[in-house]
Design brief:
The chain is of the alpha/beta class. The chain is built from 9 helices and 10 strands. The chain has a 6-stranded mixed sheet, with helices on both faces. A 4-stranded antiparallel sheet has the order 2-1-4-5. Helix 3 crosses helix 4. The longest helix has 17 residues. It binds adenosine-5'-diphosphate and magnesium ion.
């Protein structure tokens, strides 16, 4: 599944995220993620696709630690983080519904994570200014979330994660509710910040066409399992299973 075809050692060397046999069984007995293994190379834009209910969100929440995995190991930058608390994982998560603090301004939303880890005021101000500048939000710093458009809200949500400079940023259908024109504009924005920052992205969508536009690596999930992981070219031109062939070909 790795892009590198050299020795096993070389192929592994650049994997910033290594997920092995990850399993999640919910308390009601639902097997949501069924022993999946995949890795992501540093700096890649990895897109996980699959139909609704196949386990994409459960996978992301297990990575960030907001859901406790039932089994398996998660390694980030060489460290086993399987049992680490969320705040120690160096992973950001951006949701479809933004989850901004409604009573805080744009700048206060962006500053929140830095305040929680006890950063100095000067540092907070500088980093918030930088991230709002990068996200084209500087003019909106004092606005409340209710005064923002959907695209602006999602840029605030991204700012709130990016200000912490995570090694890995997870995005769970972040453009899901937006109209097509706004989606395309936000896709360009995401590709720009991914290019500008040294952050690895794992991006979840059920939209195959969007995945093709964004991904360096595509992971195709179905029913809690991985059907195929590879480059856009591999998944599109050499589907490993009948499911991949149908699902990826669906809207093309
Ligand atoms: P996706 O994000 O791909 O739509 P999810 O990870 O949300 O999929 O869900 C995977 C499976 O786990 C689905 O069958 C879903 O109904 C089930 N599920 C999700 N959350 C819970 C929960 N808290 N308790 C029990 N089952 C759940
Ligand atoms: Mg989901």
């Amino acid at each position: 599944m790795s892009k590198t075809n050299a020795t096993t050692g070389d192929a592994r060397r650049d994997a910033v995220l290594d997920v092995s046999e990850l399993t999640k069984i919910y308390p009601d007995g639902t097997l949501a993620v069924d022993g999946i293994s995949f890795d992501v190379q540093a700096g890649d834009f990895c897109v996980i696709i699959g139909p609704s209910g196949c386990g994409k969100s459960t996978t992301l929440h297990s990575l960030v630690g907001t859901i406790e995995a039932t089994d398996g190991t998660i390694t980030l930058d060489g460290a086993d983080i399987t049992d680490a608390p969320t705040y120690e994982r160096d992973i950001g998560l951006v949701f479809q519904d933004f989850q901004l603090f409604p009573h805080l301004s744009v700048a206060e939303n962006a500053a929140y994570g830095l305040e929680r880890i006890g950063a100095e005021d000067d540092e907070i101000e500088e980093r918030v200014d930088d991230v709002l500048e990068m996200m084209n939000l500087a003019d909106l710093a004092d606005r409340q979330p209710t005064e923002l458009s959907a695209g602006q809200k999602q840029r605030v949500a991204l700012s709130r994660s990016l200000v912490l400079e995570p090694t890995l940023l997870l995005l769970d259908e972040p453009l899901g509710d937006m109209d097509y024109k706004l989606q395309k504009q936000m896709e360009r924005e995401l590709l720009r910040i991914h290019h500008e920052l040294d952050i690895t992205f794992v991006y979840v969508t059920h939209d195959q066409v969007q995945a093709m536009r964004l991904a360096d690596q595509i992971v195709v999930m179905n029913d809690g399992q991985i059907e195929q992981s590879g480059s856009v070219d591999e998944v599109y031109n050499s589907p490993a299973t009948a499911f991949v062939s149908t699902f990826v070909g669906d809207s093309n």
